[in-house]
Amino acid sequence: MSARSRIIGPYDEQRHALIAHLRSRGITDPDVLQAMDLVPRERFVQDFMRNRAYEDTALPIDDRQTISQPYTVALMTQALGVHDGMKILEIGTGSGYQAAILAAMGAKVITIERHPKLSAQARERLAALGLSAECRVGDGTIGYTGKAPYDGIIVTAGAPDVPEPLARQLSIGGRLIVPVGDLEQQTLYRVTRTADEAWNVEDLGPVKFVPLIGVEGWQADG
Ligand code: SAH
Question: How far is the C-alpha of 60 from the C-alpha of 68, rounded, in Å?
Fold first, then answer.
């Protein structure tokens, strides 16, 4: 092992290159870029895919799900406007990578996943990195009233409509980032709760996610 490879980890250069790429694609929030430069994405993909961890692409994980494309993670996190101490609910833990980014930015993270195995894997990975997030198993389309209201809610699966329980679990000024559309393609929405009964919706562009399955989402196909 060379002195250089001992000082810098095996993936550090690839990670820095990804950050430069995200910057060139218009990600400007320095806290998002810093968190993504800190969290080792190779720990959140399957072992045999580690050498692809810093490609700007979604990759398959267990249970026929995916870890989101880094650009999408950056875009959604930037749209959320994360700050230290912010309480954030994530729907769709998946690999745990998005939760890790939020936790690395100092947010208090509660993340819900419908597949128990993915949730358990994510919990282990986050703990190994010393990042704290509450990993829950269940149907996230109904949110989690136990810790509501939230300053931010991020849905990392595609919904047929904005799930109403999630919009209602936002604090005033809170933001919900959610992909809405059909099974093929979705539009990323930012829903901001401006008053008790008022929400403002912004269109952040096209995205593609695996389906959000649950009572306020798509039906499971078995
Ligand atoms: N945020 C993840 C991306 C995961 S892909 C990451 O960083 O890796 C979307 C995930 O949403 C899948 O794991 C899927 O099982 C989960 N999911 C789909 N519907 C759900 C629901 N109703 N509640 C919780 N999780 C759900």
Answer: 9
- Ligand 1 pocket, 92 CB below 6 A? yes
Query: Greatest CA span in the chain, whole angstroms?
Result: 61
DSSP codes, 145-191? GGG--EEEEEE-SBBSS--HHHHHTEEEEEEEEEEEE-SS-EEEEEE
From residue 218, give the alpha-carbon distance in Å to each of 90, 176, 182: 18, 19, 10
Q: Are the beta carbons of 188 and 207 closer than 8 angstroms?
A: yes
pLDDT digit string (tens) for 40-51?
999 999 999 999
Ligand 1 atom at minimal distance to the Cα of residue 111: 24
Q: Which atom of ligand 1 is nearest to the CA of 99?
A: 7
Q: How confident is the model over 1-38, as pLDDT tens digits? A: 444 545 667 899 999 999 999 999 999 999 999 999 99
Task: Give me the phi and psi of 89, to 5 degrees please.
Answer: -105, 125
| CATH code of domain 12-207 | 3.40.50.150
* Angle, CA 163 vertex, CA 62 and CA 105 arms, to 5°: 60
Mutating to test ligand 1, I would choose from 213, 215, 219, 221 the residue with most ligand atoms within 8 A of its C-beta, which is: 213
Q: Is 117 exposed, middle or buried (0-12, 13-18, 19+ CB in 10 A)?
A: exposed
**What is residue 68's DSSP assignment?**
P
